[in-house]
Fold this protein.
Amino acid sequence: MLPQPKIISWHNNELQQKLGDIPVPTLMLIEGANDTGKSVFAQQLTYGALRSGLKVTYMTTENTVKSLISQMLSLSFDVRPYFLTKQLRVYTLHVENIEWQKEKANRLLEIIIKYLTEKCVADVVIIDSLTYMITYADEEGVLTFFSSLRNICDKQHKTVVLTVHPYAFPQDLLIRVRSICDAHLTLEIKTVGDRIVRILYASKLRGVTTGAGSVVVAFEVDPAFGVKVIPYSQTRA
């Protein structure tokens, strides 16, 4: 009997209806400026993967271990039991106070690949975020990093989710990176009256190009259950 394929459910009915399951393996890129909800989506996906019975490694450049777990708890993603049983592993990458140079950025990308290749036992890997490293690494280092991730996903059957600010890439490099990924989500923020609304555009999903704007999800961040989908028509006021 063939093994049951691994999938990630969002464990959010509204997102599940819009985006469906995320298969393992998948290489996913989540782009967005500050406060667009990149980390919230990464954390929603983390919680969904854990609830789906998968092992998750979360690498964060923006939180300590304690603050990440507290932040997720504030969104009703209680990952403490998974952390205690090591189904969830959290690693902090302290990058803000580094005096960045091309060599340091390239080296850190190489270290991440080495860890994922040789030591990581997780089904799902979240890197939130890549912005500092990608901004300072050279083009060859970035392409090598993404090509290596592609191989890791395919050969080790992992899903890897990356968050990044779009300004980290030159436009021509960004196009090439997107082509390597199976899934590409772009997040934007919009003010409608007195409301802050976030928009997700899924131009590429599950390895199939759906066409720009084919999958559009408007949402708010709700402490009760994380991502709350709202009718897209409400964002056009």
Observations:
- The first strand starts at residue 7 and ends at 8.
- The chain has one domain: 7-236.
